[in-house]
């Protein structure tokens, strides 16, 4: 079925370069499929190196003018973009649900989440300040100013096609940078719609450019940006291997990098926790977007005293989840993004069972619904040797491991190269601060399953990357300091 929107022009389905909507240089197209059915319902340009170079040319040409636009004026433009995003929540939510698969309520929720970052950075644009530094000698004045880094390249993932592009582009524009962007090949339409609304909001030609490309051609596009010294920053959300590749390839031009990479989040429940609240927190954090989030718990540790009660309540809640397409208002879990995702989930479950884990609920594909559906699953008696404990499953599978002592679970939680998010539930105030200090993670949720907020810094440590998104720290990622010293001021 074709996708019908209230504003059909929010499906431009073309590159946006230098203020013009255009086709790929060789006119090749990339099909976009509905993960609920695998049916193609749209197409976009399949970008080339020539398209990527054109985008950089446009962004570079526009940079000097955009950086000189007064901060208040930049803020007003970004605020208009926010207002348009909110006004078109329904259309954007339908777009997200159709190309990504998440239930419509989640798709609409993501639109408001994306808008929250746009609004935040619109307001922060007018608060970019520097320092007046006390001079060590008479007759000298010393200052430090923040300046935009220049052209930035944003590479965004498929799981949050609105939120991720907003979280990267809004601070870049607020700082005075210009942008070239490559959205994920699975979900390009939402990104194009957001750029369409940015154009409508008055973002000048060349300031924001977007190039779509297939998985096959993405290296061709991105390599142009990596090699071009005019691109001064790469911001990327995705897998750790790709992030490391980008870091290596950026070394020759010494680009600034923000890398939000893989996760393997622990979720710890202590004997003194509110078990019902912990189950509810896990449902929120684990099963949002069908478990296809970088901060969702991947390893669940429950202390022996509450283990049986916790897994019984969790299995009951997970078993009651409604699985179905986004078009069904009753759906709580949609399809996975593609066949590769389902194959990985199935492999993890089978490996866990072979290693001694038991399936309490789920554990299988749901072929009656379609090829990309997998039943929400609870595994018990999981251990550290299983693939689901070592690799990011990125699906609706909750493997639960029993533990006895606090020291034991801290060692287990930190026994991973990743460090994006961690969660724990406890009512012992002393333990709360011990765990907050001990967990090797960029984000920690204490008796809370929903962590992200536009005012908070989002990012990881270790193999989960570096740099932060959101908050004032996220704005600083798009600027550098210039120190200015004026002498000979003595009479």
Report on this structure.
- The protein is of the alpha/beta class and 491 residues long.
- The chain contains 15 helices and 22 strands.
- A hairpin with a 2-residue loop joins strand 1 (15-17) and strand 2.
- The termini are far apart.
- This is Succinate-semialdehyde dehydrogenase/glutarate-semialdehyde dehydrogenase.
- Belongs to the aldehyde dehydrogenase family.
- Its EC number is 1.2.1.16, 1.2.1.20, 1.2.1.79.
- Keywords: Oxidoreductase.
Q: Can I get a quick summary?
A:
This protein is of the alpha/beta class and 491 residues long.
Report the radius of gyration as a whole number of Å.
23 Å
Order of strands across the main sheet: 14-15-16-13-12-18-19
**Low-pLDDT windows of residues:** none
| Helical segment count | 15
What percent strand? 15-25%
User: Which percent range fits the helix content?
Assistant: 25-40%
Globular, elongated, flat, extended or rod-shaped: what is the shape? globular
Mean pLDDT: 97
* Number of distinct beta strands: 22
Reported for the largest beta sheet, the result is: 7 strands, mixed
Kindly report how far apart the N and C termini lie.
79 Å
The secondary structure category is alpha/beta
Active site: 260
Organism: Rhodoferax ferrireducens
EC number: 1.2.1.16, 1.2.1.20, 1.2.1.79
Domain Aldehyde dehydrogenase: 21-484
Secondary-structure map:
Blueprint (H helix, E strand, L loop, with lengths): L14 E3 L2 E3 L6 E6 L4 E7 L3 H20 L2 H17 L1 H12 L3 H21 L6 E3 L7 E8 L2 E5 L7 H13 L2 E5 L5 H14 L6 E3 L7 H10 L3 E7 L2 H11 L5 E5 L4 E5 L5 H13 L9 E7 H16 L19 H16 L3 E4 L15 E4 L6 H4 L6 E7 L2 H9 L3 E2 L1 E5 L3 H10 L4 E4 L14 E2 L2 E2 L4 H6 L2 E8 L5
Parallel strand pairs: 7-8, 7-10, 8-9, 10-11, 12-13, 12-18, 13-16, 15-16, 18-19
Antiparallel strand pairs: 1-2, 3-4, 5-6, 6-22, 11-21, 14-15, 17-20
């Amino acid at each position: 079925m074709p996708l019908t929107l209230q504003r059909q022009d929010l499906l431009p389905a073309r590159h946006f370069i230098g203020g013009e909507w255009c086709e790929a240089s060789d006119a090749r197209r990339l099909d976009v499929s509905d993960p609920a059915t695998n049916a193609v319902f749209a197409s976009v340009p399949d970008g080339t190196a020539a398209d990527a170079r054109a985008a950089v040319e446009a962004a570079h040409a526009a940079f000097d003018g955009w950086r000189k636009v007064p901060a208040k004026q930049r803020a007003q433009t970004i605020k208009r973009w926010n207002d348009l995003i909110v006004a078109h929540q329904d259309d954007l939510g339908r777009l997200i649900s159709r190309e990504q698969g998440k239930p419509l309520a989640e798709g609409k929720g993501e639109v408001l989440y994306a808008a929250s970052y746009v609004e935040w950075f619109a307001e922060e644009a007018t608060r970019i300040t520097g320092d007046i530094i006390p001079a060590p000698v008479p007759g000298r004045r010393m200052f430090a100013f923040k300046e935009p880094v220049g052209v930035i390249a944003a590479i965004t993932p498929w799981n949050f096609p609105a939120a991720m592009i907003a979280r990267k582009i809004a601070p870049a524009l607020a700082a005075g940078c210009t942008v070239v962007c490559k959205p994920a090949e699975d979900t390009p339409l939402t990104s194009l719609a957001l750029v369409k609304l940015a154009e409508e909001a008055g973002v000048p030609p060349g300031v924001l450019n977007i190039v779509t490309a297939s998985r096959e051609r993405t290296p061709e596009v991105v390599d142009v940006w990596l090699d071009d010294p005019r691109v001064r920053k790469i911001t990327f959300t995705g897998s750790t291997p790709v992030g490391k590749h980008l870091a290596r390839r950026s070394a020759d031009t010494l680009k600034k990098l923000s890398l939000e990479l893989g996760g393997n989040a622990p979720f710890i429940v202590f004997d003194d926790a509110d078990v019902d609240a912990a189950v509810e927190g896990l449902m929120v954090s684990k099963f949002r977007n069908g478990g296809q989030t970088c901060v969702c718990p991947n390893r669940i540790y429950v202390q022996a005293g509450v283990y049986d009660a916790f897994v019984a309540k969790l299995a009951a809640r997970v078993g009651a989840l409604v699985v179905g397409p986004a078009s069904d208002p009753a759906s709580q879990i949609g399809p996975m993004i593609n066949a590769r995702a389902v194959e990985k989930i199935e492999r993890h479950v089978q490996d866990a069972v072979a290693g001694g884990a038991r399936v309490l609920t789920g554990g299988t594909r749901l072929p009656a619904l379609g090829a990309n559906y997998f039943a929400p699953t609870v595994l018990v008696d999981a251990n550290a040797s299983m693939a689901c404990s070592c690799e990011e499953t990125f699906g609706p599978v909750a493997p639960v491991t029993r533990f006895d002592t606090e020291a034991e679970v801290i060692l287990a939680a930190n026994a991973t190269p990743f460090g994006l998010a961690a969660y724990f539930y406890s009512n012992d105030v002393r333990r709360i601060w011990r765990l907050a200090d001990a967990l090797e993670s960029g984000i920690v949720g204490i008796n809370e399953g929903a962590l992200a907020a536009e005012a908070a810094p989002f990012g990881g440590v270790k193999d989960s990357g570096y740099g932060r998104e959101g908050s004032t720290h996220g704005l600083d990622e798009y600027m550098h300091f210039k120190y200015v010293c004026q002498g000979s001021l003595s009479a």
